[in-house]
Amino acid sequence: MFTMLYRIGYGEDAHRLEAGRPLTLGGVVIPDSPLGAVAHSDGDAVLHAVADALLSGLALGDIGQYFPDTDPAHKNMDSRIILQHTLDLIRQKGYAPVNVALVVTLDRPKLGPLRAEISRSVAQLLGLPETEVGVSFKTSEGLALQHVQTRVTVLLERIPS
Ligand SMILES: Nc1ccn([C@@H]2O[C@H](COP(=O)(O)O)[C@@H](O)[C@H]2O)c(=O)n1
Ligand SMILES: C[C@@]1(CO)OP(=O)(O)OP(=O)(O)OC[C@H]1O
Fold it and tell me: What positions does the entry give for a divalent metal cation binding (predicted)?
């Protein structure tokens, strides 16, 4: 039984990048990306990290426990389904997200022009206004060219009963 009014969650995800694959971040397919994620699912490192952040806020483990990458049923899975399932778990425990801060580390392509679209997409999936999803981008300064990484913090609030 959780009693705190507010709880903080933190999540991370990383995927190796390869040519000839799509790159999806926050439910947005990135146009003109030379590389895409190698993953069991669609490899959306933003949605995976958001889902892990939600779960960690209530000590509910991580998405790998609910969606094992050894299960063929999850092959090429749309990560929006993973996030929806995670949100359902959080709501069943009586909490809802308040705001999200996420950082994507990716060298190419530049994501700045897609900031509003990614923020809007993640907000919509979480049932939040766009103003409650902060999105930052960083390069690795050339240290990890074939790699995407996302780090996310989320604030959860107890739903009044
Ligand atoms: N894929 C990316 C990575 C970064 N940006 C923007 O570039 C600026 C500088 O990033 P540094 O890692 O060199 O500090 C910053 O304003 C990022 O928003 C980007 O648009 N796309
Ligand atoms: C999403 C799952 C399941 O398809 O696989 P991946 O797409 O490889 O992603 P990852 O973030 O490495 O781990 C969670 C997995 O269980």
Answer: 13, 15, 48
